[in-house]
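re: ur question from earlier - yeah i can do the single chain one, its not a big deal. heres the input i used so u can compare w yours
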Amino acid sequence: MNTPLKGIRGIDLAVLISRLLLAWIFLHEGLTLATHLDGSITVMTKAGISTPLVLATIALQIIAGSLIAFGFCTRLGALALGIFCIMTAVLFHTYFIDQNELLHFEKDLAIAGGMLALAIHGPGRISFDNILSRSIKSQWLGQLLMS
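and the output i got, formated as tokens:
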């Protein structure tokens, strides 16, 4: 039987692990903000972020992080979080006199680079995107041959 995950190699596992590591930071942060919603809104409002934007940020982190973790609509989730990281770096971490802010700026740019690489490369073979793609191709080919 030809399964979608037949012939998994080390590189396939490496891409999966990379994808999960990139997703983890956003899932963890989004869930932490969501479980402490009142405090999150209070702190972020003091930083000039409106409540709707706080809620949108939490939703983005959880939804896009989940998409990347499961490898479903991975390119879209990675692109969204890559842009989010660049915006976060530029809007909130440019006080370079403070070494901690510089570190956050650089970290956000590094994560953005990983997300953009994921958006270009795709989720790899161990993903729902891959399984669905193979299934759709198989159905299309089957319909073509039956015609």
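Residues 95 and 101 are 6 Å apart (CA to CA). not sure if urs matches, ping me
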